[in-house]
Amino acid sequence: ACNVVLLGEVGSGKSSIINSIAGERIAESSNDAKGGTLNITCYTLNFSPSNIQVNLWDTPGWHPAEERNTKQGRAVGADNLLKTLHATEGIHLLLFCTQKPRVTDHLVNDFQHIYSEQAYSETPLALAVTGLELIQPSMHTWWENNHRALERYGFHCHAHACVTTVEGEGN
Asked: Which stretches in the chain have pLDDT values below 50?
């Protein structure tokens, strides 16, 4: 099976992206400020007709105000998952989820902590940007206007997706 690990702040849409990929609600999502995912959860999907099995790993979001260097709380769980998968089955994709960001120190630090400092730089990285429902003329406009700024801060992604996780939305 291929392992895809979704990472990001609380409310970045990780669980909702899993539901979109699955085509049904399999991951509990929440609009609460505290976030919905409290424990690391693996959702295994089988894609036909190729019979490809993908493990989507939903991780608890971290709060931007939390000090990431404390080695406590939710971030440690994601770090442990990454280390375990990296040493055993492998990580086939890191999907860094963020909600229509402005480039902030927290976003850059989180990215560098997970991707650069943890030696996963050989693992393909994709960026999923959510919360773009009102961007006109299309969600992709956000990427066109912001990808250079992200690259200046060291975000070098293999792929990106500008998505809506609001049911019934899209453009």
From this structure: 67-73, 169-171
Please list, in sequence order, all residues whose beta carbon lies within 8 angstroms of the beta carbon of residue 86, skipping any fewer than 6 positions away. Answer: 120, 123
The pLDDT, as a whole number, for residue 49 is 86
Give the separation between CA 7 and CA 24, rounded to whole angstroms.
Answer: 20
pLDDT, position 31 = 65
Strand partners, 42: 57
pLDDT value, residue 113:
74
Whole-number Cα distances in Å, 43 to 5, 15, 22, 31, 108: 11, 10, 9, 21, 28
Question: Residue 87's beta-bridge partner residues?
Answer: none
Print burial letters for 121-156: b (CB count within 10 Å at least 16), e (below 16).
eebebbbbbbbbeebeeebeebbeebeeebeeeebe
Per-residue pLDDT, 101: 62
Q: What angle do CA 77, 79, 82 make, to 5 degrees?
A: 110
Q: Decide: helix, strand or coil at residue 45.
A: strand
Contact indicator for 162, 20 with CB cutoff of 8 Å: no
